[in-house]
């Protein structure tokens, strides 16, 4: 039995979108890698070559190539509920954050930034040894 080349047929519009994703720095890295996998498969690159070049496993290349072939661009998105299940509910996280803020920030701001005038306390000045003598600087 001959091995499948894994060639994926993509439209010009999908190719343009995948090319854009593959160069993007603002979308998740996983989606960038998936776009590169599909583009390489569409260009006829073999599974092993894609996996070596992109630093992913062969099963990963096969999975995303097949997901694109069956579902198109939406198939490259993370599946709902993928990843580790939550062990703490949102209410508990909110209570933790509120408690943390109460302990770490036991004050409230009573002035706006426009009302605050910067002042310099001479006692806050420190010295540092520059080799040629001591120099004063503000921390």
Description:
With 139 residues, the protein is mainly α. It is elongated, with a radius of gyration of 28 Å. The chain has helices spanning 12-23, 29-42, 47-54, 58-71, 90-104; strands spanning 126-129, 134-137. Helix 1 crosses helix 2 (29-42), helix 2 (29-42) packs across helix 4 and helix 3 packs across helix 4. A hairpin with a 4-residue loop joins strand 1 and strand 2. It has a domain at 12-76.
Give the secondary structure arrangement, pairings included.
Elements: H1 12-23, H2 29-42, H3 47-54, H4 58-71, H5 90-104, E1 126-129, E2 134-137
Antiparallel strand pairs: 1-2
Helix pairs in contact: 1-2, 2-3, 2-4, 3-4
Quick structural summary:
With 139 residues, this protein is mainly alpha-helical. It has 5 helices and 2 strands.
Key structural traits:
single chain; 139 residues; two-stranded antiparallel sheet; 5 helices
How much is the average pLDDT?
78
Distance between the termini: 73 Å
Radius of gyration, Cα only, in angstroms? 28 Å
Got a strand count?
2
* Anisotropy-based shape: elongated
User: Strands of the biggest beta sheet: in what spatial order?
Assistant: 1-2
